[in-house]
Amino acid sequence: MRVICTEKSQILATRLARKLNVPLVDVKYSRFPDGEQYLASGELDDETIIVGCVVDNDALVQLLLMIDACEGSKNQLVLPYMAYARQDKRFKQGEPISARAVAQALGRGVERVITVNIHEPEVLRYFPAPARNISIAKGIGEFIKTLELADPLILSPDDGALHFARDVASANGWDYDHLEKTRLSGLEVRMAPKQLCAASRSVIIVDDIISTGGTIATAAGLLYQQGANDVYAACAHGVFTGGAYARLMATGIRDVICSDTIERGCSRISAVDEIAAAVNDADH
Ligand code: R5P
């Protein structure tokens, strides 16, 4: 078995190869004069774990090329983050089901797929290979413990992520709840006040994705108005589009943390343990 990765998942894949005690395949990347991507993989084994975070269109194409380059090996695809997963249905007539289009393209040529905190687990059915979603809730909980906060309150910004907040909180006996959110546009969200006991408490908002940061910024503002002592934000996938990380830190959020499913400077949680366990789970 060997691990191979795209450029966007070098750190996570290296951690995974070390954890599994298998070699990492060397890959050469370049571009043709017209901008098309090229890659050439080093020697493969009969079994390959392909790790590729799809955070943008270039990353998607690179991962498609890599899966094709691994033809002939028995492949497992680890998809730490999957862009387009939020367009998981046709919200309006004429729209694509983008998650399905991406899943169908990526799921060919692999024997199974592992996703991490995918936005909507229903998307798994779109992969042409068996697909399983794993969660890093435990890792987030362990990180929160290192902050040594007294009686923290774990909040999800909407009821869709409530199970994630519950999973982070329940293993540690912390309180959890959710806020109610209405999305006004791609950039704007409104958060209806809810009866929360945030006053004088340290609050950690947990979400699957921080993209524009609008959801977290609105939630944090509301919580500070309600007298929260400190507000932190933790997510699986730090997309941080349009300077979102810096903007959030400037709004008074104490800290913003994400995992290495997308490799960022604030990736202080690793998904490697959960991924290694899923790779080793022969029953899947
Ligand atoms: C939406 O349902 C997701 O769970 C996140 O809350 C959302 O994607 C965050 O987006 P943004 O950071 O742009 O508000």
Can you characterise this structure?
With 284 residues, this protein is an alpha/beta fold. It has two domains: 2-135 and 271-283, Rossmann fold, CATH 3.40.50.2020; 137-260, 3-Layer(aba) Sandwich (Rossmann fold), CATH 3.40.50.2020. Helix content is 28%, strand content 27%. The protein has a six-stranded parallel β-sheet, with helices on both faces. It has a five-stranded parallel β-sheet with strand order 1-4-5-6-7, sandwiched between helices. Strand 10 and strand 11 form a beta hairpin. Helix 1 (10-20) crosses helix 8 and helix 4 (137-146) packs across helix 5 (162-170). The protein starts with a strand and ends with a helix. The structure holds ribose-5-phosphate. Ribose-5-phosphate is lined by residues 157-158, 160-161, 189, 207-215.
